[in-house]
Amino acid sequence: MTTATLPSRWVKPTARGLRIVIPATFDPFIRTLLASWLVFWAVAEISVALGWLGVIEARIPPAPVWIAFLAAFTAAGAFLAWHFAWVISGREIITSRDGVLSIARGIGRWTGRPRNFPWKDVSDLRMGSYGRRVIYPQWGRLFVGKDDAYLSFTHGGHTHAFARGLKQEEALDLLHLLEAR
């Protein structure tokens, strides 16, 4: 079961339902930029540590200042490394089986705990677009691409968005696949 714009490798019919794996796809420029920032961060982190240990000549500020700086800088580097890993090998897994919609995200071989939504409680499944929004959440959110379409639904009085960053045609095809479940 494939569609006009969804690559067939994304869609995997199973005996009990449907499994869709959407890989994160980003421009090579984004990968290069993140890799460059990660290298800069690693060099700076090592330099700070070497200066603190006295291996290289460095002016060290009072302990509370450098401890706070190092903690913040390390946290920023960890976030950068996580985002780089997502851009390189992230994926979103959407499963519809046994009356349940499951959405999980993963990096490489690791897959996070799925969020499960019984289909009987899901309403208003629709496609949305960030196209006309001047500002929309992008950093820290697990976008699977850099386009402006996404899917969302209402469950338990809350709106849940997924498949963020797809092309409009891909989002529409995905919507039709899920509606036909």
What does the model show?
Helix 1 packs antiparallel against helix 2. A hairpin with a 2-residue loop joins strand 3 and strand 4 (100-107). The chain is 36% helix and 31% strand. The chain contains three helices and nine strands; from the N terminus they run E-E-H-H-E-E-E-E-E-E-E-H. It has helices spanning 28-53, 63-89, 168-179, and strands at residues 11-14, 17-23, 90-97, 100-107, 110-111, 115-118, 122-129, 149-155, 158-166. It starts with 10 loop residues before the first strand and ends with a helix. Strands 1, 2, 3, 4, 5 and 6 form a six-stranded antiparallel β-sheet that branches. Strands 7-8-9 form a three-stranded antiparallel β-sheet, with helices on one face. The protein is α+β, with helices and mostly antiparallel strands and 181 residues long.
Instruction: Give the integer mean of the pLDDT values.
Output: 85
Poorly predicted residue ranges: none
Give the % helix: 25-40%
Number of strands: 9
Bulk shape: elongated
What is the oligomer described by this structure? single chain
Report how far apart the termini are. 11 Å
Order of helices and strands: EEHHEEEEEEEH
Instruction: Tell me the strand percentage band.
Output: 25-35%
> What structural class do the secondary elements suggest?
alpha+beta
Alpha plus pi helix count: 3
Radius of gyration: 21 Å
Main beta sheet: strand number and arrangement?
A: 6 strands, antiparallel
